[in-house]
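Reagents: none. Just compute today. RDD domain-containing protein.
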Amino acid sequence: MSIEQVPPKHYPKVDFGRRGMASGIDFLCVSVVSSLLGSSQLGVQIVQILVFAIAWVILRVVVPYNNQGQSLGRYAFDIKVLEIERGRVPDLQSLLKREGIVGLGALLVSIALSNIIRNPTAILLFIPLAIDCGAALSDTQLRQALHDRYAKTMIISSRRGYSLDIKIKRLVEKTRRNMR
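Predicted 3D structure written out:
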């Protein structure tokens, strides 16, 4: 008796630009909160790291769990996260696995950005997140990053959202027409 893998349902793929911008909005929100609540001393601050981790879990785990798989950034760009096998919003454990990996990479990027002027080698802290998310470039079928493969999740397009990317494109197009 052999076990055959059932291919997942066909879902609309999300391009990497939209995924990056959605993650960037979430990262920006969490970074602003952690920088406002942390101290302004030099170096890495434990309080800032703790606030960053708590805000990341709230924004990227609790909110999507209660909001059909969409965080603030994913809602802005009509994206949601689903489990591969069931095609539903992942449970809390899967979201915690997934966002624990991404959150660690995002935390390292935040530390790098706050220390890059004093220590240019801090740019090396971008490498873990780049490796994790860069794996999605080689996956042509599901476009899964390493954190998606580990948590058995995928990112898909959604009909529900704000369509910020489309609204920005329209605004730029309208501005170009008016400048002519």
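The chain has one domain: 16-179.
Action item: order primers for follow-up constructs.
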